[in-house]
Amino acid sequence: MTDILKFSKKDFLIFSFVLFFGVFLSIQGESRALKSINTLKILEFHRLNPKIISAKFIGAALFGGFRGIIVDITWIYIDDLWHHGRFYKLPPLYEFITAIQPEYIDGWVMGAWHMAYNMSLDVENTPNISKHLKNKIELQWVYRGIDFLKDGIELNPLSAKLNFELGWTYYHRLKDYKNSIEWFEKSAVLKDSTYVTPRLAAYSYEKIGDYKTAYKKWLDLKKHPSYEDNVSKKIIDKNIERLNKITSGEPL
Questions:
Q1: What are the Cα distances from residue 172, in Å, to 35, 106, 137, 205, 221?
Q2: What residue segments make up the domains of the chain, in order of their start?
Q3: According to the model, what pLDDT value does residue 76 have?
Q4: What architecture does CATH give domain 2-248?
Q5: Considering the entire predicted model, what is its pTM?
């Protein structure tokens, strides 16, 4: 039994070395791309699209029972890079994690958030490029985060969290309220959806000028379990009263 354990540990160490060597090679290309003037090239680099390649097949065929362990080790590496501010090395690692364990929802959420927020906003710190190019790169990173979430939703269509995160990225990062409605609405009807989701759908309808639908959404929230909470009740009632005046033509 002892010999088996020693053998397994040795195999695991060798396997881990091979794994990280492969990841290391991949992130070097990303690192060089970010440090050059051709930063936009990174947006097509390491694009692992689960629509074309079955992520579950990759994970099962190549890594088998090691998948959970590999994800844990990679996550520790991600955490270390995160705390050292080495954001540019993270995208391929998130794509790697979600490729071998696509049901790991937080991998999709954190990866997309990192792309749409950290990477896009960190572009401001890139020297010697024009503001126009910075804005273009920032927007490209936001859309990379959006595409990443869409890939995650395709593999996990019943995840309220992923649908919510996509709606929120459209709502908060792009101010694209029309698209945010679609994903908030999808998230709201799924199991484990939060009480915030239908409220954000209502706000989104209001943002695009559809006050009647927004008003109806707030009225529907009186049937929501969260209405029993005093704070939630005040928020819901206040918005119903406010939108009632708008839809009836009364002055606010």
A1: 28, 19, 18, 14, 22
A2: 2-248
A3: 85
A4: Alpha Horseshoe (1.25)
A5: 0.74
